[in-house]
Amino acid sequence: MCTVEEMISLKKKYGLSYEYISQESEVPISTVQKVLGGINKNPRKNTIEALSKFFDKYKNLGLVYRAYDSGDDDYFRETGYYCSKGSSALKSEDGSFSGEIYTQSGYTYDDYCKLELPEGTRVEIIDGVIYEISAPSVIHQLIIGEMHIQFYTYIKKNKGKCVVLFAPVDVRLEYDKGDMTVVQPDFLVVCDKDKFSDNRSVQGAPDFVMEVTSPSTRRRDLNLKRQKYKEDGVREYWIADPESRTVIKTVFEGEEKTTIHSFEDDIPVYIYDGKLVVTLRDVNI
User: Fold this and answer.
1) Distance between CA atoms of 85 and 101, rounded to whole angstroms?
2) What is the mean pLDDT of residues 175-201?
3) Residue 149 pLDDT > 50, yes or no?
4) 180 and 107 Cβ atoms separated by less than 8 Å
């Protein structure tokens, strides 16, 4: 159970409003303000339990976040398929694919385009290191399908200028700064069509990104990719977790704010000022 001090700290860390806390915990807003504002020094047990149940989500979220600049490189190098630059792990003359596979930084988008990988293998480059992308599951596809339908319908109805895309599409986050980060977000929205100038990739940060996480990508989505998206100008980032049926929504624009939602919720989209509300409640298999 969270202490009041922990709740106050989590409220500040994730930019949570009294209104949002009250709505999600079902504790009256006046009570929330008194408890978290230090006015009520002895709140009722049932009040603390209700608030703690809400804040436990954020407390647990904090356990999986790690600072990107912690220096713990091995933390980000998850088990996967890594190819070293110039190694025999690339396709040989006889068409086979064998040899030592290990991690080496230094890849650029140009190298990425020249890689000859086994059929069906997809990779990303983050800070010059190659990471394999696993094949999407059925529920993964269903989530992306729901997102596409709801975003596309809203944009078309309102004659919007933004473009909805989904993987596989290459996003060159740092194309003008060494071009050593090329990712394939599961779902993205781009509002500046100049970023499609080469008709092969997205040159620069999308406005909106969603990753559908899995046990093999969870740390990367929550830490490394989250930090890269933040640094390079993504305005809004969602992480959908099919196992817990939750969405971690982070708004990077302005004062950073993170909220956690259920698939059953109506989730407002920040880049559309909350006028577009998305739900994943119909995603089931």
Assistant:
1) 10
2) 91
3) yes
4) yes
| Helices first, then strands: H and E counts in the chain | 9, 13
- Report the mean per-residue pLDDT for the chain: 83
For the residues 272-281, what does the mean pLDDT come to?
Answer: 96
Q: In the numeric block, which tokens belong to residue 175? A: 């194309």
Q: Structure pTM?
A: 0.76
Residue 271 CB-density burial (10 A; 0-12 exposed, 13-18 middle, 19+ buried): middle
Instruction: Count other Cβ atoms within 10 Å, centred on residue 95.
Output: 7
How far, in Å, are 97, 140, 190 from residue 115 at the CA level? 12, 26, 27
Q: How many CB atoms lie within 10 A of CB 69?
A: 7
Closest Cα to residue 7, out of 42, 50, 45, 63?
50
Which residues partner with 163 through β-bridges? Answer: 190
Residue (of 174, 171, 176) closest to 232 by Cα position: 174
Q: 13-35 pLDDT, tens per residue?
A: 777 889 889 988 999 999 999 99
